[in-house]
Amino acid sequence: MLSHRFLSAACCVCVLTAACAPTPKPPASTVDHSAHEHNHAHGSSTPALVVFEDLAGELPAGQPTLVTFHLEQDGKRVEKLEPTHEKLMHLILVRDALDEFLHLHPQVSDEGQAEIELTVPEPGSYHVYVDFQPKGGQAGTARTTMKVAGDARPATELKTNAPGEVIAGELRAEIAITAGDEGKSQTITFHLKDGQTGEPVKDLEPYLGAMGHLVVIQAATKDYIHAHPEHGAAATSNVAFEVHTPASGQYVGWAQFQRGGDVMTVPFVFAVP
Ligand SMILES: [Cu+2]
Prior knowledge:
By secondary structure, this protein is mainly beta. The chain folds into two domains: 4-8 and 157-272, Immunoglobulin-like (Sandwich), CATH 2.60.40; 44-148, Immunoglobulin-like, CATH 2.60.40. It has one helix and 20 strands. The protein starts with a helix and ends with a strand. 35% of the residues are buried. The chain binds copper (II) ion (CU).
């Protein structure tokens, strides 16, 4: 069990997965109902879908392409949205090999129509996740898949590298992981140092209203777990996230931090025994 002090210092959004869902996972697009770490109450709604409106077939690789889509929940188009973390929708694309990651914010109309110019450099199959919160409803993640045309680079075996040090451009991240809640959650702490000097960073800026942003994908199921540190946390070189880990196995994470107006992405792989 996590201490109260910890819970007040970090927030998390966990996602219900096949492991804790009562019925087998549908084969196509599914939603993961977001729920708090210790509250696995199932929402009343059925899985939400990302519905592309003009994407016939494959997206061309490396070419900016205007893509429109909307979300559907309970068979109905989701129109009115509440911003979460400063945006109406967070669009995440992850290649099936878990080696490519994009995090974008589409323009969203009052009718729930989303529009984004999408440039995906690497061919392959992608999992598409959209974080959203319907007005007056529960936050959730809508899903679908898409293909990016071209010769897809073959997947390589995922190598667990966290806990450990990951160098991502101007950022050197020492990643520490502490299991809690009998292994069902992990506290992932990033000790951030300057890539050049190795000194703890002093210039971390809020990104999307928090001191960091973390997406975690469960490698086996491609289920999506989104986590944020405490909103408005004081500037520090250490940022901790609490991440729900429903099953043993490998997880791939992409942590994002902002310095000097630039967003830096730290990819990492960890395993839950
Ligand atoms: Cu976002």
